[in-house]
Amino acid sequence: MNASPFSLENKTILITGASSGLGAAIATECSKIGAKLIITGRNEDRLNKTFQKLNGQEHVQISIDLIKEEELNYLVKELPKLDGIVLCAGITMTKPIKFISKDNIDEIFQTNIISSMLLMQKLISSKIMNSGSSIVFISSIASSKAYIGNSIYSTSKGAVNSFSKVLALELAPRKIRSNCINPGIIPTEMLFSGTFSDEQLREDEKNYPLRYGEPNDIAYGCIYLLSDASKWVTGSVLTIDGGVTLK
Questions:
Q1: CA of 139: how far to CAs of 2, 80, 143, in Å?
Q2: Which one of 99, 123, 161, 190 has the minimum C-beta count within 10 Å?
Q3: Residue 220, CA atoms < 13 Å, CB-side half-sphere
């Protein structure tokens, strides 16, 4: 038995969106402190790269698209009993409100919140989560901090936070916790995929008292919420943003 309450030894944890960015960093760091992982992602090649970085030999990778219900059902059937879940799958879009379409809304909401809601419904119904399990949603400071052109993404992340809080109440009798992490801007592939120019990023970073963070800063917050160190924490939103929301 590990004496540290922050250890993830003997815990089996599912991480969605693990093929890149924050999800890949969270998976890598969780594996370093003893977790047995099931990682998922849409891009099989990138998911395999994450898998190759994991410490230990008992991990599993399952390449699926969470917005396809038949693939979601397949995932649930393949899962063992779980002690933790990190819901990290997400996409972003920057577009002024006057230009958004229903297709834009559907695309963002299907990935950022609807797939997670349906996954949790299936996991609860299947009784896969052990008593004392921890659920961590990767949300965003955009859920409460407005940015021009960010209406759909911000709204989807606000929905994530609200869903997590209701989930926390409903699962409390089973000693299952649900919390969110609201990251500030973290340099990842998604950030540099054309959403912002280098100049925009340099100017934005000046707004952060501690400047931009790193993926591991979010991973360590996940480890805390997944571990027994946070066994009395539920329905919370942990902001990890270098102080930008202080302004």
A1: 30, 26, 7
A2: 99
A3: 6
| DSSP bridge partners of 129 | 82
pLDDT digits (tens, 9 = 90+) for 65-110: 999 999 999 999 999 999 999 999 999 999 999 999 999 999 999 9
- For 97, the token pair is 């409100």
146, with CB counted inside 10 A (0-12, 13-18, 19+), is exposed
Give me the count of residues in the chain. Answer: 247
CA distances from 25 to 83, 229, 232 (A): 19, 20, 25
Whether the per-residue pLDDT at 1 is higher than 60: the answer is no
* pLDDT tens track for 132-170: 999 999 999 999 999 999 999 999 999 999 999 999 999
Q: Is 76 exposed, middle or buried (0-12, 13-18, 19+ CB in 10 A)?
A: middle
Distance CA 182, CA 46 (A): 24
